[in-house]
Amino acid sequence: MNSDNPFGPVIFSYSRKQALADGVQVDVSLTAQEAGITYPVFLTRAAYDTYVAVPPGGQCGSHQDEAGRLWDIVWMLRCAIQHGEPGQDRLPVALYVCNTDGPAKLVQLVAQCGPRDIDDPAPAITVLLPDED
Questions:
Q1: For the segment 44-73, what is each residue's pLDDT rounded down to a tens digit?
Q2: Which of 52, 88, 110, 117 makes the best surface tag, with the fewest CB within 10 Å?
Q3: 80: domain range?
Q4: Nearest to 111 by CA among 88, 96, 102, 100
Q5: What is the Cα 42 distance to its own chain's centre?
Q6: Count of domains for the chain
Q7: What is the rounded end-to-end Cα distance, in angstroms, of the chain?
Q8: Cα(17)–Cα(64) distance, rounded to whole angstroms?
Q9: What is the pLDDT of residue 2?
Q10: What is the residue-wise DSSP string for 4-31?
């Protein structure tokens, strides 16, 4: 060990660029900008597939589309940011989502603010399911 690298060499790294290329994350920054969020915003694939993708088979009626479902998440993220405490880097995001026939259900997501990528310390927000990290 030395003072330049007290933890030793990197064993493995996985950048956001790789995650986007692999489809593990989805860049939703343009929609987030429309909602007034200035930081880049990304959703994990699990969050996107669970709450943005329209359920198959016409569940919840034919009035839903991905753009509207994404807007709901981004808007509620904006509300969570506005009501959060200064300095928080992790916020709960709650919204109602219809994924089955019947009434919409309250679901919980988590928004984590951190570096945009391994080589880019600028802030970015990742929205994920509560059991993801």
A1: 999 999 999 988 766 666 678 899 999 999
A2: 88
A3: 16-128
A4: 88
A5: 5
A6: 1
A7: 29
A8: 30
A9: 66
A10: TBTT-S------HHHHHHHTSEEE-HHH
Is the residue at 94 inside a domain?
yes
Question: Does any domain span residue 9?
Answer: no
Distance CA 10, CA 5 (A): 10
In a domain, 32, yes or no: yes
Query: What's the CA gap between 24 and 16, in Å, rounded?
Result: 9
- Phi first, then psi: what are they for 36, rounded to 5°? 95, 10
Domain for residue 8, yes or no? no
CB 113 within 8 A of CB 42: no
The reported pLDDT for the residue numbered 104 is 87
Average pLDDT over residues 120-127: 97
Interstrand relation of 90-97 and 105-117 (parallel, antiparallel or unpaired)? antiparallel
Q: Write b or e for each residue in 108-121: b if 16 or more Cβ atoms lie within 10 A of its Cβ, otherwise e.
A: ebbbebeebbeeee
* pLDDT reported for residue 56: 78
